[in-house]
Design a protein that fits this description.
Number of helices: 13
CATH architecture of one domain: 3-Layer(aba) Sandwich
CATH class of one domain: Alpha Beta
Shape: globular
Strand content: 15-25%
Distance between the termini: 18 Å
Structural class: alpha/beta
Number of strands: 9
CATH topology of one domain: Glycerol-3-phosphate (1)-acyltransferase
Strand order of the largest sheet: 1-9-8-2-5-3-4
Largest sheet: 7 strands, mixed
Helix content: 40-55%
Length: about 325
């Protein structure tokens, strides 16, 4: 139940325990240095040049292929079975461009003004969330790996309530610290998934304190303790944390889908704006145990995401296994 992406998504940095300690240290330094340089350099580029650079990175990734691109293709094929191979090829290319657009915006986000952020995001269905947060309540939002989570969170922190999320701890530690600092700067409070206080206990405390939006990207089960649901008509495993947190604390649960759409320059970043769509408040439709209610709530979250994934497939940045059939094949 994590929010946002990590450095590994862009660099494919793998901790495979190098035999040479000096090599390991040099790799860490290059990783940290690369991200620090990226944050500075990409912010310094004119907007068209920055987005053009990341488009080229995306196209190169597609041409080279590899496990992550293959997984994206596999996930897209399940979401859009009606597409022939040329159409699927085009969709994968668009998906990688969208994925790299996210990283370009992440690098540039700390330099954006509040007005730029507000103009580049449009939100639908947020009236009830606004009412609850204005009253000082904490709201829990189940989100997927769709669109730009960080830009949506930066908008929400200014428009709805301060945002709390859980993030995977990256290695080297300095990269994780850079990402935490970046997200703190845009109004997000980060709870590490590992290496600190039990994250669920921290979320419970945050929910009970009130006055926050807890946003958790939970459309992928990182713990093998999730629940099986139907996503785009296929069995998938998702984290149950948002539902259990809501049931335990009484904090209202919503699902939110995020996607990109083309927009005029005045209301966009690089020609696109981010669209957030909240569901109605989700309540258990079944009686029974907490586990039964949690599974039903997560199914409702999946039901909210499925139409968005089909309609805006290129905004679904799922380069990992999520479907049950894939989880048993032993590949990444």
């Amino acid at each position: 139940m994590t929010g946002g992406r990590g450095a590994a998504g862009l660099t494919d940095h793998v901790n495979d325990q190098p035999t040479d300690r000096l090599t390991h240290r040099l790799t860490d330094l290059l990783t940290v240095g690369g991200f620090k340089l990226g944050w500075r350099a990409v912010r310094a580029l004119p907007e068209p040049a920055a987005y053009g650079l990341f488009n080229r990175i995306a196209d190169l990734s597609v041409r080279r292929g590899g496990k992550r691109v293959d997984r994206l293709r596999s996930n897209y094929r399940r979401a859009r079975p009606e597409l022939d191979e040329p159409a699927l090829d085009a969709l994968v290319r668009a998906g990688m461009r969208s994925y790299m657009r996210y990283y370009c915006e992440a690098f540039r986000l700390p330099s954006l003004s509040r007005d730029q952020i507000d103009r580049a995001v449009v939100c639908h269905g947020d009236a009830e969330v606004r009412r609850l947060t204005a009253r000082g309540e904490t709201v829990i939002a189940f989100v997927g790996h769709l669109g730009n989570f960080d830009l949506a969170a930066a908008w929400a922190a200014g428009q709805l309530a301060p945002v709390t999320t859980v993030a995977e701890r990256l290695e080297p530690e300095a990269v994780f610290e850079e990402f935490v600092s970046f997200r703190n700067a845009i109004g997000m409070d980060i709870i590490p998934l590992t290496g600190g206080e039990d994250p669920f206990a921290a979320l419970v405390r945050t929910a009970r304190a009130g006055g926050r939006l807890i946003a958790l990207a939970s459309d992928r089960d990182l713990t093998s303790n999730g629940v099986e649901v139907e996503l785009v008509d296929h069995p998938a495993r998702m984290a149950k944390g948002p539902a259990v947190l809501s049931l335990l604390t009484g904090a209202p649960l919503f699902a939110a889908s995020i996607h990109y759409e083309p927009a005029p320059k005045a209301s966009s970043l690089g020609g696109y704006r981010t669209v957030i769509q909240f569901s109605d408040q989700l309540r258990p439709r079944v009686a029974g145990t907490t586990a039964d209610k949690a599974r039903d709530l997560i199914q409702q979250c999946a039901d909210h995401l499925s139409p968005a994934i089909r309609a805006h497939t290129s905004s679904w940045h799922m380069l990992q296994r999520v479907f049950v059939e894939d989880l048993s094949d032993g590949t990444s």
